[in-house]
User: Fold these one by one.
Assistant:
Number 1:
Amino acid sequence: MWILPLLGLLAGAFIGSTLTYEVPPTYIKYMSIAVLASLDSVLGGVRALLENDFDSTVLLSGFFTNALLAALLAYLGDRLGVDLYLAAVFVFGVRLFQNLANIRHGLLSQLRNNKQEK
Amino acid sequence: MSRKWLLPITIMCFIAGFFLTFQLKVMAGISTVNPISERNTNLITIINDLEEEIKNQEELIGETRDNLDKLQEEQIKGRLQELQDSLKTAKILAGLTPVAGKGIVITVDDNTEGLKANPDDDPNKYIIHYSQLLNIVSELKVGGAEAISINGQRLITTSEIRCVGNLILINTTRIAPPFEISAIGSPRLLAEIVTASELAIMKLSNYPVDLKEVEELIIPAYKGDLQFKYAQTKGEN
C-alpha cells in the first residue's frame, strides 16, 4: 500500500527532471519554499496517518495555505528588503524535524504493539 | 483502516518529488553559468576576431607591397637604377623584405621539468619572461645582428616585446613558448656574446636552452603596417 505514494514521488521527480523551464533568479527562493512546504506536507500527512487523525482536506488545504503564506512572506520580505523568506524556511525546517520525530515514535510504538500481540 | 488517505498522500508525494527535482535542476543549471566565464568567452571571441582581421590586413599589405615592387621593377631600366638600389637597402634596413644569411638560432622554453619537480614553488621562477627575451635581443644587437625574428615575427624599429599575462606580445601578435630567436650576423660573435650573459643565467636556472649556428638562415619580412604620422624627414644639416 506504500507503493502508490512512492510511485507518485518517482513520477513527480521524473517530470521535474524532464521539464526544462528557465526560472528567473528572483523566483528561486519561492521555489525553495515550495520544496520545503511540499516535503513538510508529506511528512505531516504520514504523521497524521500514524496518529490516526488523517484528514485529506486538512492535508491538501494545509499545503496550499502554508505555501501561499510562505510565498507572501517572501514577497513582502523582498519589498521590505528583509529576508523574511528565511522565517518560512526556518519554520518548515523545524516542522520537518518534528514530523520526522513523531513518525519515528509512531512507527516504533506500532512495532512494539505488534510484538506484544504475538 | 480505510484507504482514503492513499490518494492525497500520493498527490503530495508527486508534488514534493516534482518540486524537489525541479529545484535541484535549476540550482545545478545556475552553478554552471558563471557570469565571469561568460564574459571571458566573449572577450576571447573578440580577440580571435581581431586577430583574424589583423591577419587579413597583413595579407592586404603584403599584396600591395608586391604590387608596388612589380611597378618599381618595371621602371627599373634607366636612371632610376640608383634610386631603386637605395630603396632596396632602405627596405632591408626597415625589415620589409625577407633576408637570408649566416646566423644563429636560439631556442628557449619554460622550465616545465623544474616546475613539475617543485609544484609548490612560485611558477614565475620557471616560465620565460618577456624581459629575458628583451635581454637576449639586446645582446644580439650588440653582437651586430642584422636581422632578428622571434617565432617568425621580424623585429623592426617599432616592434614591441611586451608581457600580456601568460603570453608575450610581439608585433601585436601573441607568442607562446617555446621561443625561437633567429638572428643573422656573424655566428661566432653572436653565439659568444649571448652565451656569456643571459643564456648563461637561464642555463643556471635550468631552463631548456639551445643554440645552433646556421649557415643559411631565412628571416621573414615584417608583415604589419609601418606608417610615420609624426616623424618627418629632415635634411642633414
Note: Residues 42 and 233 of chain B are 43 Å apart (CA to CA).
Number 2:
Amino acid sequence: MNETSKKIRIKFAKTGLMIFLGHLDLMRCFQKIIRRAGIPVAYSKGYSPHQIMSFAQPLGVGCESEGEYMDLEMEELLDLEIIQNKMQRECPAGLEIKEIALLSVPLANAMAEVERASYILDIPALTKEEKLRGIRNFELSDSYPVTKKTKKGTREMDLKKFVFELRLEQEGPIFTVLKSGSTDNIKPELLLQSIFKETFEAAGDVGFLCGVDYLVKRLDLFGSDGKALI
Amino acid sequence: MKKERKLALSFRQLLTIDKPERYLGNEINAIYKDADKVRLRFALCFPDVYEIGMSHLGIQILYDMFNKRDDVWCERVYSPWVDMDELMRKAEVPLFALESQDEIRDFDFLGITLQYEMCYTNVLQILDLSRIPIYADQRSEKDPIVIGGGPCAYNPEPIADFFDLFYIGEGEAVYDELFNEYLRVKESGGSRRDFLIAAANIEGIYAPSLYEAKYGLDGRISSFSSKIEGVPIKVKKVIATDLDKAPYPEKPLVPYIQVTQDRAVLEVMRGCIRGCRFCQAGQIYKPVRQRSLDFLKCAATNILDSTGQDEITLSSLSTSDFSNTGELVHWLIDNYREKYVNISLPSLRIDSFSLDIMSRVQDVKKSSLTFACEAGSQRLRDVINKGITEEDIMRGSAEAFKGGWSKVKLYFMLGLPFERDEDVLEIAGLADRIASNYYDTVPKEERKGIRVMINSSASFFVPKPFTPFQWAAMDSAENFSRKAHLVKDAMKSKLNHKSLTFKYHESSVSVLEGVLARGDRRLSEVILKAYKKGCIYDAWSDLFKGDRWDEAFKESGIDPAFYTERERDWDEILPWDFIDIGVSREYLYSEWKKAERGEITENCADKCSGCGAAAFGCGICVKERTISK
C-alpha cells in the first residue's frame, strides 16, 4: 500500500426506501452525508468546485444492493474507522457503509475496474420448477442470442458469453454472476427477460416492474477474474 | 428512524409514478413521533408540487416550531402530481401525511399555506383527495379543522367557504394559543363550533362562518358583519415583534430529489422599507424587522452543519436594505469559502456596494444582473413609487459593465395604473440606453468580442388587496397584448436591437389572478366548478385550462370583469376591509391619490410617512427618525 494515497474506496449497501433513489439523487445524498459528517474530502479546482467522488456501475431504480462502491479523494486522511462511523451516523435508513479501504496509487477509478457483478434475482410469480426450466434451457443451449438496447440503438449478442454463473438457490431465488462494467454490461433485467420471455411478455403494456414483479439484489461487484474491489 | 416505516402506497404504485421520493417522507431531518403520545396532529400543506413546497421557508419554520411542542406532531403534505392524483383516485387511496403516512382526514388540523391565488383549485384537490368535505359547513366533528394562512389569507373571501379558519399574520405569533384553545375545547368535550368561536376571539384568527357578507343590487358589498355577538368585527394581523426571539429552524428538511430552492436559507429581515405602490408584500409584512448578526451567524452554522447544504442564500424582500449584509457576507466568506459553501444573494439593488459583494461570491462572467425597473419611464416609476431613477440604473449598469458583467435582465410590468403608451415605449428606450451605456463604458479592446445582452421581460400587473392600487382597474388582456407588441416593435427599431430581447407572460392566467385576488365570497362557486371541470395546477401554464374557467364563470353567472376592470371608490366596502394590517386605509388611499399625481413617498428608512404600522411598536417604526405629519 502506497503511503501517499489519499483515495479511499467505500463499500455500501442500498436497501429499503433507498431503492427509489436514482443515481443522481444518490450522489447528491452522499455529497451531503459527507458534508454533514465533516469528512475532509478533496474538491476539484475551478469556479464551481465539487467533491472528487466516483461511483461504480450505477444501480437501477427498484434494485437493492449489498455491494455498491464509491471512490473518494480525501484532502486529509483520517482513520478509516472514524470515517466509517462518521458517515454511518449521517446515513438515512437504507444506506449502510459496510467497509472502507485505502487505495494504492496508481489506480483506476471504481467505475473502470468493474468487470463482473453478482446478483440474487427472483420472480415471485414463478414456481421453483418454472425457474429451473428457464435456467436449464439456458444451460443446455450452445448459444443464446439476445438483443441488447444500447444508447445508439440495438445490438445482437450472445448472452452465453456474458453469464458466468447461473443457478437456482435452495430457497428459490436465482444466483448469477454477469458481465458488468463499461463494455458489454449485462443488466439483470436482460437475463430475466431472455430466459423468462413468456412471463415478461404476458405482463403486456402494464410492464413487469423491477422491485415488485421481479426482484434484483446486487450482492457485489468484482474486477477482472472476479477480483474483489476492496 | 432505523426501523421500517409503513407506507400508504405499495411499491408497485410508487414504482409506476414519476419521482416516488416525493411521497416517502423519509427526508433528512424529518420528524417522527409516536402518534399515540401526542395530543394534537397537524398536517401542514403547501398546495403545489413537492419541489415547490419543499423550497418554501415558511413551511420549514412552522414545521420546526410546531414540532418543538411535545404534545404536537406536525407532518407535511404537498399536492400529489397529476400522475399520482390519477393513481390515488383510481386505487381509492386517500391523501396521507408524509411522515406517518396516515390519512389526513384523521388529523386535528389541516393547515394550508396560500402563497398565490392560482393554487386555489389545488386546495380543493387536497380536500377532495383527503375526503374532507369541500365546504366547511358540511364538515363533521371528526373532520380536521382546515386553516389557511400566508399572503392570500389577506383576502380570504374567494375561498372563505372552504376553510374553517384563517390565520392573518405570522405563524410565530399565536399558534401556541390557538393549539391550547383547541385542546381545551376538545378535551372538555366542546364542539367544532365552540372551538371556532373561541378561536375567533384570538387576535389574528378569522372564522369565516361566523361572518356574513351582503350584496347590493349593483353587485357591490352592502354590508359585512359578524353573525355572533362578541366576535370581533375587525381581524387584526399578528406578527413576531422580535425576530431574534422567534424560533428559526436549525435542522431544516433536506430532500433527496432536486427541489426548486435546494439550499440553506437565512431570513435576514422581514418587511421592506420601500413603499412600492404595486407591492402587497411591502404592506402586509410591515414593519421592517431585522435579525441580529449574532443570531444569523449562529443559525447559518447550525443549518449548514445539520443539512450538509453547499449553498446558503440570504433571504428578504430587499437584502440591500438589511443593515448588516456586508458584514454577514464577509463573515460567511471568511468561515465557509474554504468549506466550499456558495453564497447566493437574490434581491440586491444594483449599486457599487452590492456589485462589490456579488463579485466576491459569484462568477461575474457567467452570471447576469437583474434590475427590477418595473416601468420604462421615470414618470411611471414615480407613479408606482419604485424609488429608483434612470440615473441609478445607468450608474449601476455602468459599474456592472466595468466589473465585467455583460448580461443584464430587466423586469417590467405592463398595465400599471396611469400608464400611457409613451411609458410603454420607454421600456424599449431604457433597454436601448443601457446597451449604449455598455459601449460608452467598456472600451472596444476590453469587450473581447462579447455582445452585451439586455434581456427584458414584462408581466401583467395585477392589483392586489392592501396596496394603494387596490382601488385600481386592472388592464384588459387585449390592451396588455397590444402594449407588449408595442414594446416588441419598438425594440426592433432601436440602435442596439441585436442586443435586446423581450419576453412577456401569458395574459389569461393574470386576468384570473386579478379576479381571485380581489374577489369576494361569491367566487367559491366558480372555483369549485372549475375544479370539477378538471382545473388543477393553474399556476403551471402548460396545465392551465382557461376555457374551463370561462365556462365556470358563465355557468355561475359571474362576470370576471366586475372584479378586474372596475375602478373602486373610497366608499366601496372591499371584501378584505374587515382585516386590519396596521397600515391604515386612509394611508393607502392617500398613496393612491399621490400615484395619480406622480408624487413619490420617501422610504421608511429616510422618513416615517405615518402609515399606521407603528402601532405594532417594533422594528424600524420604533427607531428614531423624523416623523412626518
Note: Residues 296 and 493 of chain B are 49 Å apart (CA to CA).
Number 3:
Amino acid sequence: MHFYLPIAEMSANIFIFLGMGGAVGFLSGMFGVGGGFLMTPLLIFSGIPPAVAVGTEAAQIVASSVSGAIAQWRRNNVDFKMGTVLLAGGLVGSVFGVQLVVLLRAAGQFDMVVALSYVTFLGIIGSLMMIESINSIRKSRSGKSTSGRRPGQHSWIHGLPLKMRFHRSKLYISAIPPLIIGGLVGVLAAIMGVGGGFIMVPAMIYLLRVPTNVVVGTSLFQIMFVTAATTILHAYQNHTVDIVLALLLMIGGVIGAQFGAVAGEKLKGEQLRFLLAGLVIAVCIKMAWGLIGTPDEFYSIGRAIGGGH
Amino acid sequence: MALLLRATGTRMKPTVLTMAARLLMIGSVAAGLGIAQGAVTDTAMAQSSVSGGANVVQPPAATPKRLREIVHADISTRSVQVTSSFTGTEIIVFGSIEHGRPEHAASEDLYDVVVVLEGTPEKLVARRKSNVVGLWINTQSMTFESVPSYYAISSTRPLDEIASPLVLRNHDIGFDKVRMLPVGGWESGITTADLRKFKEAVIRLKNSSGLYVQSDYGVVFVGGASLFRTTIDLPANVPVGNLNARVMLFRKGQMLSQFKSQVRMQRQGIERYLHDFAFGYPLLYGITAVIVAAGAGLAASSYFNRRRA
C-alpha cells in the first residue's frame, strides 16, 4: 500500500516505513537508546532527502521521549533543575543549529555535513562502546567483578564560577558545563536529527558526576523539549517535517519498542553493548563509504532553495 | 453528423473509457469533413482544441486545392490528481491528421508525429563533487533559471530521422535542445565547456530518475495513416505542476502543424491540505506536528502502562 508523502514528495510503501520504525523501535527498546542516530541514516539510505529525514526524525523523537520521560518522572528520576539548565543550553543550540542547516542547505553542503557528523560521532561512540564491552566480557569470563564508577575526583569543573545547587543530583557545581553540554546536544539535534542522549548521558555521568539513576530521566526531559523546539524550527524555516512519515515511524516505533524491551531483558548488558556497538560501527562505515568512495556520479541536482514552490 | 458528434463529445468527460470513442470520432470527422475544411493556423487550433473532439468543426475557408495538413489531438487525462494514493499515471495522447494524403504515407514521404509533454519549469541547482583531502564534496555548482521539471518525448521515429537539429532546436524538441540558462549568465565566469558538462549532467540525472523520457517509436499509427496514438508514463516523482503538451506533425523534415494543450496536475484531498498547511502556515504546522507527536507519546505510554498494571 502506497502513500504519497506530502513533504518528501515521493510515493512510499507505508509498510516499509512502519517496519523501519518497528525495527529501530525494537532496537531502542532493547538497548535503551533513543534510536534517532539509527533512524535518520536509515531514512537517508532509503531515499528520503537528508534534510527531510532530519526534520521528520526530530518529530518522532518528541513522541518517544515524551513516553520515556513520563515513565522516568513517575519513578521520580528527573532532576528538574539540572534538566532546565541543560534545556536552556539546548534551546540556544537548537536555534543555532537550525540556522546552520538553512545556510548549509543553501550552500549545497548539508548532506555532506550530516554524513560527516554521523561518521565522526558514530565512529567515536561505536569504537568506545566496542572496546568497553569487549573488556567487560573478558573480565566477566575471567571471573573478576566489573568495576563500577571510579571515585569522584575534584576536576577543573569544580573551579568554574556560577555555582548552583542541584538537590536531586546532590551536586553543587557551576551551571556552565551543563549549559555547554545542553547547547552541544541542541546543535546536534538540529543537524543530525537525534535526541543527543548518546552524548548527554556519558557527559552527565563522567563530567558532571550526576548519579546514574537520574541521568536517563533528566536527559529525556531535556530531549523532549529540545526536539519539540527543533521540530517547530525545522517546519518553520526549512519546511522539512513530513508529518505523515513521522506518524508512520511513531506507530512502528512504539510497537517495536515494547517487543525490544522484552528481548533486552534476556540478554546480558555487555552482550547488548557489544551488539549495539557493532550496529553503530556498521552504520558509520556505510556513511563513511558515501564520503570516501569514488562516486559513480559526480553530479547531483536539486531544486534551488529560495525559488517558488 | 458533426453536430451529433459534437453533442456527445462535450457531454462526455475526458476519461480513458471515452477516449476510444473520441478517437474514432475524430477519425471519422476528419475523413468525412476533411475536404470541406480550410487550413487553420496553429494558434487557432490550440485555442479551439480545449473542448475535446468538437474542435474539428471549423468554419470553412476559401483555400485552393492543395490543403495544408492539420494535426488534431486530444489527451486522455486533462487533469491529474495527486492524492495520497498517487503512484504515477499514464497519459494517452491521440489524434489524427486532417487532409492527410495517403500517397505520401509511402516511402520517404512519411508523416511523422512528435509528442512532447513538458512539466512546469523550475529553478534548479546542479552540483559537482570533487575530492577534497579524501572526501567527496560539492565544490562547483550551477543554478539554472528554468529547467522543465519533467520532459517526455514520443515520436514515430528517432528524432534525428524526423528533422534536422536546427529544426528540432527551433521547436524546442529534445532534451539537449531545451533552453537552460544559468543564473547570472556569462558574467559569472562560466565557460562553455562547464556549461555543457552541467547541462549533460542535468539531462543524465533527470533521465535516470525517470523524469526525462524518450520513446523513439512511441507514436503509432492506427487504422491507416491518419490516426495515431501514444502512451506517456507520468511517474510518481514528477514535481506537481501543470504540464504542457505539444503534438507536432512533420513531413520531409518540416513541421506542418502543431497542436497545444495543457494537462492540469494538482494536489487533491488530504495531500493538498497538508502541503498547503506546511507551506502556508509553517509555524502552526510545526506546532501541530509537535502536538501530534506528544499526543502519540502520551497515548502510547498510558496504553502500555495500563496493560502492564
Note: Chain A touches chain B through 57 residues (CB under 8 Å).
